[in-house]
Every structure is written in structure tokens, then in C-alpha cells.
């Protein structure tokens, strides 16, 4: 499954780093797909059992390389999970949570509402947003929705309100459409749990909870154990991990595409 320089570059010329970076993940993903297919047909075994996705690990140096591998694997419909021990509040979902909650806390603020709607969580894209703003009835529908979420948050608390939002706006299903959808949903639900807990513990209203969330997202905020990223389910999924985070771990099959 190695790369043939003559097939991916110009004859007689060295393969550039950019070209190699584009082709290496494809080659690795293709080999992983081949092995998985052999396992499904009982032609590749680990001991006495067929090889499966969770027997395979891809070790990389940086998180962006892991995300690149995850995207390429997704194009071949191969499930994968990214192992990370970062800070929950450094995640993309923390930024999106802050934007959505800010829009709900002040539903009459058009700028905050726009920022909320254009998150991956809510799924309204740029051109769609422009059309929505021009459509008075469509824009009014969102205003009413966010006012209702605001009132529900006031009456029954963050957890009840956000569960309602997840259900009505189909947030979890939408995020699962991304290559790292399981990771996004894991982070989002972890954030909800953390915010609910601190709002009860410190009796925080909307404004104070948003201030607390903003402070946690600042670079100077320390990472406490309960705010470390949780692992996604790794059952029947290829494992993606940075080399320094997998010391002491063993995997039946390991790829190091960027070593």
C-alpha cells in the first residue's frame, strides 16, 4: 500500500511535502479499509477472532493530523474516535455553547441571535441567514423560539431548557453529520452537565453563568479534572491518538502516517 512517487508526482521530480500530505492519509485509509474488509470475511484474524475496527490505531504527532485522518476515514465510512485529554472549555463546542446561550439570554439582540443561528449546532448558513432576515415571518419564527427558550430557562433552569432545544432543533442529529460528530456530541453533553452543575452550586442566573463560561474559555483558566475532555465510545472504531498521549498503550495494528 506504499505510495508510488511516479503515480502521484511529476516523473523525475521529488514528491512535495504538500502532495505527500494529501496522499498519505488516503493510502493509510485505503489499507485500513482493506484490512477491515478482510476481517469481515474471516481472512484477517487477531488470535482466533476476525480483525475489527477497534484493533487498529493511527498515531500522529498533532491533533490537526488526527482530524485529517478522521475526515479521510469518514469518506470511506470507517468509524473512528479521537483520543484527547484537552480542556473541555477549549473545544469548538464551548464556543458554540456560549454563542447559543448568549442569544437565548438576550433574544431581542439581533446580533446575538445571528451568531447563535450560524453555529454548527443550529445549522443556519450565511446565504440562508440573509434570506431569513429578509423574510419577516421566518425571522419572527426564530425570535419567538428564542424568547420561549429564554422563558423556559427562567422557569425551569438550564438543563430543562437545553434538553428541549436539543430535541426541537435536532442538534445531536445535525452534529452527527460531521466526521467528528460523536466527539462533538460528547463535548456538548459534557458542557451541559458542567454548566448545569455550576449553575446549581453557585446559584447563577443567565448573565452570571455566561460570564463564568466566558472566564473558563480564557487561556489562563486552569484545567480541572472534571473539565478534561471525555472519550468517545471506541467500540468498533479505529482509534486516533497523538503519540505522546498513547505511551504505555498497545494496539494489535498501528499506523504512523506522518512519522
Automatic annotation (TrEMBL):
Q: What is this protein called?
A: UvrD-like helicase C-terminal domain-containing protein
Tell me which GO cellular component terms the UniProt record holds. Answer: cytosol; exodeoxyribonuclease V complex
One of its Pfam families is: UvrD_C
Its GO biological process annotations read: recombinational repair
Q: Where is the UvrD-like helicase C-terminal domain?
A: 1-248
Q: Does the keyword Nucleotide-binding apply?
A: yes
Organism placement in taxonomy: unclassified sequences, metagenomes, ecological metagenomes
Q: Name one GO molecular function term.
A: ATP binding
PANTHER family per record = RECBCD ENZYME SUBUNIT RECB, UVRD / RECB / PCRA DNA HELICASE FAMILY MEMBER
InterPro entries for this protein = DNA_helicase_UvrD-like_C (IPR014017), DNA_helicase_UvrD/REP (IPR000212), P-loop_NTPase (IPR027417)
Membrane: present as a keyword of the record? no
- Which keywords does the record carry? ATP-binding, Helicase, Hydrolase, Nucleotide-binding
Q: Which Gene3D superfamilies match?
A: P-loop containing nucleotide triphosphate hydrolases (3.40.50.300), PCRA, domain 4 (1.10.486.10)
Amino acid at each position: 500500500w506504499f505510495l508510488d512517487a511516479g503515480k502521484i508526482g511529476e516523473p523525475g521530480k521529488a514528491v512535495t511535502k504538500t502532495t505527500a500530505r494529501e496522499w498519505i492519509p488516503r493510502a493509510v485509509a485505503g489499507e485500513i479499509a482493506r484490512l477491515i474488509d478482510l476481517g469481515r470475511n474471516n481472512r484477517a484474524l487477531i488470535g482466533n477472532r476476525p480483525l475489527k475496527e477497534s484493533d487498529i490505531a493511527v498515531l500522529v504527532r498533532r491533533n490537526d493530523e488526527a482530524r485529517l485522518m478522521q475526515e479521510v476515514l469518514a469518506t470511506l465510512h470507517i468509524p473512528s474516535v479521537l483520543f484527547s485529554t484537552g480542556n473541555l472549555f477549549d473545544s469548538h463546542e464551548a464556543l458554540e455553547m456560549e454563542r447559543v446561550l448568549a442569544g437565548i439570554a438576550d433574544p431581542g439582540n439581533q446580533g446575538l441571535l445571528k451568531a447563535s443561528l450560524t453555529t454548527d449546532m443550529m445549522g443556519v448558513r450565511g446565504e440562508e441567514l440573509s434570506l431569513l432576515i429578509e423574510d419577516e415571518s421566518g425571522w419572527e419564527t426564530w425570535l419567538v423560539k428564542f424568547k420561549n427558550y429564554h422563558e423556559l430557562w427562567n422557569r425551569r433552569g438550564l438543563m430543562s431548557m437545553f434538553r428541549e432545544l436539543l430535541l426541537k432543533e435536532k442538534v445531536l442529529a445535525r452534529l452527527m453529520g460531521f466526521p467528528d460528530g460523536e466527539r462533538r456530541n460528547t463535548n456538548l453533553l459534557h458542557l451541559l452537565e458542567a454548566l448545569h452543575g455550576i449553575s446549581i452550586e453557585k446559584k447563577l442566573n443567565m448573565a452570571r453563568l455566561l460570564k463564568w463560561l466566558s472566564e473558563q474559555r480564557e487561556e489562563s483558566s486552569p484545567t480541572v479534572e472534571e473539565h478534561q475532555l471525555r472519550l468517545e465510545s471506541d467500540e468498533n472504531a479505529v482509534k486516533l491518538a497523538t503519540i505522546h498521549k498513547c505511551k504505555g498503550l498497545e494496539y494489535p495494528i498501528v499506523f504512523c502516517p506522518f512519522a
